[in-house]
Amino acid sequence: MNMREKILFTATNLFESRGINASGVDTIIAESGIAKATLYKYFPSKNLLITAYLRGKSDRFYEWLNSNLSFKRANSTDVLIELCELVEQWILTPEFHGLPFHIASVEFPDPQHPINQYSAELSLELQNYLSQMAKEAGIKEPETLGQQLTIIFEGAALVERLSPGIGAAKRAKSAAVMLINASAKKKK
Which residues form the HTH tetR-type domain (predicted)? Predict the structure, then answer.
């Protein structure tokens, strides 16, 4: 693990266990066992470190999702149903701590703050990803379905984070499948 990865790994653990604002630069430096100059060499500001954390979490999610989806079924709604199953599985993993961009937007509530703005970008990225999958599946209004699925999945992630094991992920999957099936009946 190189120095940048070490800093980001430490920051990720602290952000997820203590919160972003509660994990100051001095704590990250102490936990990493590095000099302050080293941290600032790789991340000139805490905002850049937070952005790297959020980007890394999103990238790992999409990599996991894409490696588990059967894209041989990409031109059918089957891939969307499979996606719903995978999102439920992901939310229910013990490593799931909520959507990082949700947490960051709560910790930085000012809509003008760069972290809040980046969190909104990541939410839109998820919506665009889902819309693109709906488009490839031949859904007539893919942007509508993409937004609906985003609302359902983000809501399930929040409810499961606040009340683990309550069944929100399973119910969200069922609702998403119903929407997909209804949207598929209106295909192009």
Answer: 1-61
CATH of 54-185, one of 1.10.357.10, 3.40.50.1360, 1.10.580.10, 1.10.1040.10: 1.10.357.10
Compute the radius of gyration of the chain from its Cα atoms: 18
Task: Give the span between the Cα atoms of 18 and 1, in whole angstroms.
Answer: 23
122, burial (CB in 10 Å: exposed 0-12, middle 13-18, buried 19+): buried
Contact 87, 79 (CB under 8 A): no
Specify the range with the lowest mean pLDDT, choosing from 46-50, 74-78, 179-183.
74-78
Q: Where in the chain is the domain with CATH 1.10.10.60?
A: 1-44
pTM recorded for the entire structure: 0.91
